[in-house]
Amino acid sequence: MIQLADLPDILPIFPLPSAVLLPRAKLPLHLFEPRYLQMFEDCLKTSQRLVGMIQPSGDGLHRVGCAGRVTQFSETDDGRYMITLTGISRFVFAQEVDGFTPYRRARVNWQPFEGDMHSETCDFNRAHLLDLLARLFASRGLSTDLDGLQDAGDEMLINSLSMMLDFSPEDKQALVEASDLTARVQVLTALIEFALRSGVKDDAIQ
Fold this sequence. Notes:
Layout (H helix, E strand, L loop, with lengths): L9 E6 L10 E6 L2 H10 L6 E5 L1 E2 L2 E2 L2 E12 L5 E17 L6 E6 L16 H14 L6 H5 L3 H11 L4 H9 L3 H18 L8
């Protein structure tokens, strides 16, 4: 298991709008650009196998991202990769690092999120959240396995929903930057309630 002391000061980073990662949740990615294929191959040569997911912000990057460990991958016949990142910890973006790699790298600070290294629980109204989710899906003409969600732990439920629901990049960033799980479920609930009130007919799931 990776410990805080094992986390590197410099991370390869994958800036991708609306694709966010949170601790212990899983993010599937399809890599096909040469620079990210190189990033992945270099990543596998390290002991931690970490990639930093962070959203672009204007001409730069947002302040907070989350690192994931490559926990699964497969290669296609034409040289592309399907990989899965499992969230380890959020980080604060300090500065971009110049170098000879075709992909971007960043110096990061882990200390503000050292609590991410351990699973969280929180006291929230699960039935209310799942009812909101069912109403949101129904409004989009979609279905979901709410019974399966009932069995998910608090952290996995909240973090997975925060990642998969199709909120704006700014809203997703608010979920990433929430101080803890209690704050995140509050933001998540407010976003779902707003989506229900707005009546926008976009798909609710990416």
